[in-house]
C-alpha cells in the first residue's frame, strides 16, 4: 500500500511519469493480501471470551434447567410454563481447561403473538447460527419431533432430556442411534457426557486450527479495519483501471493506508516521501 501510495503521490504531487499498470499490480496484491489475512485469521474473541455454545431446542424441553445444571447455579428462570425464557443470557463455563461461553435463550419453535417472545425467538435462532457449538435438546417424555434440528453436524451435540421420566414411544429406537445422548438435566444423569463431548469437539477444533500454517489472531476491530482497507483498495483499483492515476483513486489509497495505520500505527507522510525519493 505504501509503495502504491508513494507512486500515486509522486505522479500527482511531483508530476512524475508513473505507470498506472504498475500501481494497479501493487493495489491488487495489497487487496488480495488484506483479504487473505482476514480469511486465514482466527477470532481473538474466541480465545478471550470463550467458544460460544448455544443451548437450543423447542420450548419447555429443559434448556434453562440444563444451563443452570452446567453452571451449578440457578441463573436462568425455570418454570413449567412454556415460553418462560424470552431474552438470551450467557455465562462463562470452563470444562477440560477450555473456556466456553454458554448461552440460554427462547425456544426456537415459539411463535406467539407476544412481540417480546417473537424477538426472543429471532435472537435465539440467530445465536444458534453464530455459535461454535449447539447443544440441541429434545424432550424424551414427548414423542420425537419429526423435524431434525437445522444445525450443521460438526457443531451439533444432540441430547434427549428428561430421561428420568418414562420415554415416549419412538424414543428407544431414536436413542439406539449413537449420536443422541440420553440425559436428565433435572437429576444430572448423563450431563457429564454432554460436557465430555463438548470438550472433545473443542479439542478437535483446536487441533485442526494448529495443523495449518500459524494463524494470526485478530480482534473484531482489526478484522473490520482490514476489511475496510480491502474495500478501499478494491475501489482504488476500479478508479485506476478506468481513469488512470487521479484524485479519486489516490483518496481511496489514503483511506486504505489510514485503516491499516489504525492497526499498525500511523503511517507518516515522511515515510511516503522517503519511499518516493528512494525511487527517483
Ligand atoms: N422430569 C424432568 N423435568 C425436567 C427436566 N429438565 C427440565 N424439566 C422441567 O421441564 C420444565 C421446563 O424446563 P425449562 O428448563 O424451563 O425449559 P426451557 O423452556 O427449555 O428452558 C420445568 O418444569 C422443568 O422442571 C428433566 O431432566 N426431567
Ligand atoms: Mg428456558
TrEMBL record:
Ranges of residues in domain G: 52-145
GO cellular component, one term: cytoplasm
Pfam families attached to this UniProt entry: MMR_HSR1 (PF01926), MnmE_helical (PF12631)
Matches recorded under InterPro entries: G_TrmE, GTP-bd, MnmE_dom2, MnmE_helical, P-loop_NTPase, Small_GTP-bd
GO molecular function, one term: GTP binding
GO terms under biological process: tRNA methylation; tRNA wobble uridine modification
Domain MnmE helical: 2-280
Stated name of the protein: G domain-containing protein
